[in-house]
Predict the 3D structure of the following.
Amino acid sequence: MDKLTFKILLLGDRATGKTSVVRKFVHEKFSREYLETIGMEPYNQYETIDDTDIRFSVWDIAARENFKPLRSFFYKGAKGALIVVDLARKETLQNVSKWVQEALSFFKKQAFILVGNKMDLVDQIQITDNELQVAVGKLPQCIGYIKTSALTGDNIREAFLKLGKNILDS
Ligand code: G3D
Ligand code: MG
């Protein structure tokens, strides 16, 4: 049987750690599916959730262009997205609804997880758990929040698995 493929997007402001998060998640790149159209290669990671083999195909926003056909190609078919904020920069939380609205404008049936990244910067945290929770409550189709560190690897795999399990169950 073919493995299930979950196309997952990484969304969020510049320098919140999107690329670092996916690089930490992915041990190896298995495929060579470089996408000419958009000038990027999705990161692939295989995981097993509830005895089901799943290929996470993770698309990093970096290559996104303002040219609409490229954007629709980027968003098309996504099953979900990690909305990444930088816990040490409060303003990165302000744009989360913008990212979710944009994703939903291209593709409706998606699940989102709010990722508070850089939790290792303990002395510089500007966003509280309560603020994350309030943001989750305002975001449509958002399953919750998780705090991560792409530096230490804390909760990185858990973030993808939590989103993946929600997609699998729906
Ligand atoms: P982006 O892809 O969202 O633009 P990057 O973000 O992954 O390029 O990360 C932006 C900067 O934040 C990088 O630093 C990266 O090392 C740092 N970073 C990412 N995740 C974490 C984290 O969890 N903890 C800490 N402390 N730093 C993190 P530089 O200095 O290379 O620009
Ligand atoms: Mg990046």
User: Anything to note?
Assistant: The radius of gyration is 15 Å. Strands lie at 4-11, 43-49, 52-60, 80-86, 111-117, 142-147. The mean pLDDT is 90. The first helix runs from residue 18 to 25.
